[in-house]
TrEMBL record:
GO cellular component: cytoplasm
GO molecular function annotations of the record: GDP-D-glucose phosphorylase activity; guanyl-nucleotide exchange factor activity; hydrolase activity; nucleotide binding
Highest taxon of the lineage: Eukaryota
Domain (GDPGP1-like N-terminal) ranges: 28-192
Organism the protein comes from: Chauna torquata (Southern screamer)
Biological processes, Gene Ontology terms: glucose metabolic process
The encoding gene: Gdpgp1
Coiled-coil stretches: none
InterPro entries, A to Z: GDPGP (IPR026506), GDPGP1_N (IPR058866), HIT-like_sf (IPR036265)
Protein's name in the database: GDPP1 phosphorylase
Amino acid sequence: APRPEDFLYGEDEFLLQGVTWPGAALSRFDRALLGGWQDRMARGLFRYRLGELPTRVLPGSMRLVAQLNIQRGTERRRPQAVHSLTQPFDPREFNFTQIRPEELLLRLRRCPPDGGSPAAPDHVLAVINVSPLERGHVLLLPEPALGLPQALTPQLLRFGLEALLLSAHPGFRVGFNSLGASASVNHLHLHGFYLGHPLLVESAPAEPLCPERGLSLLQEVPAPALLFYTAGAGLEALAQDVCRATARLAALGLAYNVFATRGAPPE
């Protein structure tokens, strides 16, 4: 039977067009996520109260967005030591089996197509990040009891991409930090958050590498980056392609970040 926190969705709710700056009315997903997040903030479940953050768009062609969030630096849990990009999950360290039940906001559950049986896995958990970077900052988790290390999987990434398409806010972004690239907990998770500013990566030029797979090399950005683009179709295949690339990077000993956002087609 459905539980109160269950958020069932189907592909018919994906917003593939019309989500542009400065944004418009929030979607059902946005209202559920932000409403739950603000409720937990009012109940004091975070490590600090997040107010309006001092924010500047820095001068220059990169248009970098800088924010001052002092409490994130002073109040967050100390990151775990990283000895290898492929180190296994350690149940003796802090992990997401230890989160409080009230930190759970939503159980994002994908409706099976045509009324069939749910595929496994058919859901992820959206829980508050108790040391938030921004408004609506959540973690997207597969079932914590699985004890998966922080190595990106196609299944989790697909849920993250679907969350992006469920949001009507152009500033809702999803990200992944590998071990050695700012991951503070070696337990599989994505970040999701709202940032009310357009970013360079949404419109930066790109050099085609494998157009039939939506793969390009981003140009004129602060760091080397591969761009995987889709207009909304083939999310499962795209997630598999991204994870093949990240697995190769990890095998080479290269830490990496994945950042998912709405943006213009590569040119």
